[in-house]
Amino acid sequence: MEVKTKTEAFTLIELLVLIAVIAVLMAILLPALQRAKNQARGIFCLNNTKTLAMAWLMYKDDHDDKLVSGLAGKNQWVDNPENNASVDPLELKKEAIRRGTLYRYMGDNVNAYHCLADERIRIATQLAFRSYSIAGGMN
Question: Tens digit of pLDDT for each residue in 27-54?
Fold first, then answer.
């Protein structure tokens, strides 16, 4: 006598239900993950602002209570990027920050000048790397 065994496999309906359940769970979880990501970016940007404020205060303490100039240029808080077509524009912008008078108080952290929530760095034609600035009329 021959005995038939049932194969252990999912039916098409069971697979479609499983895929639907996974899709619903993803639809519920993705917005929550996006909110958490945005909150983390905000905390990162707030920390950068604190770091810059501390650097400005340390500069003031070393220079007879005078704040660093808010203008961009030679001997200012950041320098202007040079025009050099053979070098990556992002690296030119970072080098301009490194030449600024405030950079030595930043602990060699050029990325503290940029907020992760600032999307301008991803635009090739955009000239901005810094997300923060100070008033040009300081001092």
Answer: 999 988 889 988 998 899 999 999 998 9
Quick check: 51 and 106 in contact, CB under 8 A? yes
Res. 138: pLDDT tops 60: no
Q: Give the C-alpha separation, 37 to 15, whole Å.
A: 32
Map tokens 């602002």 to a residue. 49
What is the per-residue pLDDT for 16? Answer: 92
Q: Which residue has the tokens 């040009």?
A: 136
pTM, to two decimals: 0.69
pLDDT at 3 over 70: no
Contacts 24+ apart (CB under 8 A), 44-52: 44/115, 44/116, 45/115, 45/116, 45/117, 45/118, 45/131, 48/111, 48/112, 48/113, 48/114, 48/115, 48/131, 48/132, 49/132, 51/106, 51/107, 51/109, 51/112, 52/102, 52/106, 52/112, 52/113, 52/132
